[in-house]
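I would like you to sit down with the pair of lines that follows and say whether tokens and residues agree.
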Amino acid sequence: MHRVLVAEGLSVYCGTVEEGDQLYEKVKRLLVKGEKVLLDFDGVEIASSSFFGTFIYRLHADYGSDALGTQVKYCLLLPRLQFVLNHTLTAMHSQITN
């Protein structure tokens, strides 16, 4: 599993659609090679729903639901980041099933 340090590649404040796109492109390069990815959020203070939404929706569009649970994992999320991630995943799941 390839560890991606989110704060190193982006910022400790991940709040924009553009940053979500940047993370997606980085992860996509690894997934294309058949690697699984561990997104390490150590040091990330803020991550918005725009950031997570862009990343997750693009990941789902290109790789399906399996990528969200099996190919990409998350670690060291502060509770507030975990909340935003969970909320974004719930919203996406709701849109897919409706």
Summary: The radius of gyration is 12 Å. Helices lie at 6-9, 17-32, 49-63, 65-71, 79-97. The first strand starts at residue 2 and ends at 5.
